[in-house]
Amino acid sequence: MKKLITVAVFAIFSASSALSLDITPSFGLSYNTAGFAGEGNERVGSDTGTVQSTTDEYGAFGADFASVFAEVQFGNIVAIGLDYVPGGIESPINKSRESEDSAVGSNGSGNSQVSVDFEELTTVYAKVNVPFLGGTYLKAGFSTVDVIVNESMESGNTYADVNTEGFMAGIGYNHEIANGFALRAEVSASQFDDVKTDNGVAAGSESVANGGRNVVQVESMWGAKGTVSLVKSF
Question: Where are the domains of the chain?
């Protein structure tokens, strides 16, 4: 997040020094309804170091969440902003194939569960008004997010948290009300880089006690959302 704040501040000061335009700061509160999807690959290892199974699955889930943003507009066309989701976006709970059955010396059925929280979702964006279409605007930005893995493993292993980044693009409409207030409606799509994590068992150290090495990779991650915002300009 700190990197994106630095980028946003640098962009604002660069634009303000390069353009002799009126500067209008704005702050907003947004309600978002989103869907996220990705393709996951789980490689389950045994206590002897061999790959016991490989599974590919495509998954998707929906979530509603709030976000806040700060924005600086230069003249009547271009604005640069920073959008932040203060809470986590929770995925459904999924059962993992990882478990350890000491009686047979291999992975058993178990009751291991995994869910993911997407936290600190932060986006630096540029918004460009389309004057001949009333309050219509286009938006493009760069996002980062922390992927927090919440696990309850029968073997006692834990999966490392990771982070990812990607790009977003959207289109919206800004309706001026009065006294600097406005309402916005927007739809956007996002794409994120692939992520990879494991259960903390190093290659070559597999045993009955740790249940073997498991590796999970998620790729082709994308999301789409609809957003309604209340904006105050000064």
Answer: 2-233
